[in-house]
């Protein structure tokens, strides 16, 4: 009964951490901000304003539970002081950089460096310090090494999330280039919640196994707590397809995760390398984002008005455009047998047969294909396509 009570308290601890609520607030604001941007570009909202919130409570939760099981069996523990610092760092980064600055490389890396500084300079973390285990008595080297491996694991998860859901429902937009030319682009913006079940030294949850915990602190008991780890991702894509961009970034983040894990192995022999791992994670993740932005500025724009057809950024759900599966980057060359180069010519050609639509499209491989669909009475006059046209 006592154990069940501690488990319920641990679940409730998630709702006592301010970073959890700030994350939700940022996600909600981002959803309505995106709707505003979509309407500015296309006079219509494309995706639900709650899309970001659904993603927040999506795939990341599964990874959080899996990692929690791993942490349980290796006997990993955190301290209440580190958790408090982590909450502060996460909130500050969310407010300063929104989704872009909430990679675990930043949140966990900075929080761990600050925590080590508190140990080194003997800062007082009261009231966020366990009286039974003051920071000065902590085996700080072992603690830092363990966090390095957790960080490497979380970076690998971040790469997976970027690869497989970072480009989902990418928000199209129209903007002007530095030369005043109208171009199409995509805003990739995601925030995933990974609730990590962890144990902290203190009264409450008694150790069950002889090998528990990894830090040798005698007969110390533990309390259950859920840490709201948040992984953020934000990039603008205008020179390639969103899926191509997320794949490249995911590969680089995976490489960074492997590098951090290798440094973690070295830190077992030379503990100071654990601090190097945090610095490398922070600098490396910043460099990945910086290189993406630099490459996007140097490369040629992909989504621009074309003289021989109409460039498409995508289509709304449940419209003739979505039924024909016209994708971003494809170009409409003909409509009902007539060449088209702008919206007016497209709908003039379609107006000759309001019950049927047949388009010649050039795909992203440069190959032509024919797509067609019946236009039902319940369909609006628009095909639901987002076009990049010269103004």
From TrEMBL:
The keyword Transmembrane applies. Keywords: Membrane, Transmembrane, Transmembrane helix. The keyword Nucleotide-binding does not apply. It comes from the Bacteria. Signal peptide: none annotated. The chain crosses the membrane at residues 14-35, 56-74, 80-99, 106-123, 143-170, 191-214, 256-288. InterPro entries: PDZ_sf. This is Membrane protein. It comes from Listeria weihenstephanensis. The lineage of its organism: Bacteria, Bacillati, Bacillota, Bacilli, Bacillales.
């Amino acid at each position: 009964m006592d154990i069940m009570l501690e488990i319920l308290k641990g679940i409730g601890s998630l709702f006592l951490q301010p970073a959890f609520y700030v994350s939700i607030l940022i996600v909600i604001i981002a959803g309505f901000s995106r709707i505003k941007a979509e309407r500015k570009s296309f006079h219509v909202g494309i995706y639900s304003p709650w899309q970001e919130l659904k993603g927040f409570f999506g795939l990341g939760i599964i990874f959080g539970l899996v990692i929690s099981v791993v942490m349980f069996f290796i006997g990993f523990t955190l301290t209440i002081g580190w958790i408090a610092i982590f909450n502060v760092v996460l909130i500050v980064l969310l407010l300063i950089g929104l989704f872009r600055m909430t990679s675990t490389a930043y949140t966990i890396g900075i929080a761990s460096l600050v925590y080590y500084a508190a140990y080194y300079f003997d800062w007082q973390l009261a009231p966020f310090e366990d009286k039974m285990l003051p920071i000065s008595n902590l085996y700080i080297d072992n603690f830092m090494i363990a966090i390095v491996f957790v960080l490497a694991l979380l970076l690998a998860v971040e790469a997976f999330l970027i690869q497989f859901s970072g480009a989902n429902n990418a928000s199209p937009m129209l903007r002007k280039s530095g030369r005043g030319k109208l171009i199409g682009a995509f805003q990739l913006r995601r925030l995933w919640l990974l609730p990590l079940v962890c144990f902290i030294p203190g009264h409450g949850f008694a150790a069950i196994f002889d090998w528990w915990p990894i830090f040798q602190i005698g007969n110390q008991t533990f309390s259950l707590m859920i840490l709201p780890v948040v992984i953020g991702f934000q990039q603008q894509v205008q020179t390639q397809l969103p899926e191509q961009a997320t794949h490249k970034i995911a590969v680089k983040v995976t490489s960074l995760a492997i590098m951090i894990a290798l440094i973690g192995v070295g830190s077992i022999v030379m503990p100071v390398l654990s601090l190097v791992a945090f610095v490398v994670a922070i600098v490396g993740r910043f460099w990945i984002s910086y290189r993406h932005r630099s490459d996007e500025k140097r490369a040629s724009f992909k989504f621009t008005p074309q003289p021989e057809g109409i460039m498409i950024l995508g289509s709304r759900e449940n419209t003739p455009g979505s039924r024909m599966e016209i994708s971003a980057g494809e170009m409409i060359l003909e409509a009902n047998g007539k060449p088209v180069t702008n919206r007016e010519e497209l709908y003039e050609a379609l107006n000759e047969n309001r019950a049927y639509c047949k388009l010649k499209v050039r795909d992203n491989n440069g190959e032509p294909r024919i797509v067609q669909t019946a236009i039902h009475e319940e369909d609006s006059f628009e095909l639901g396509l987002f076009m990049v046209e010269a103004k």
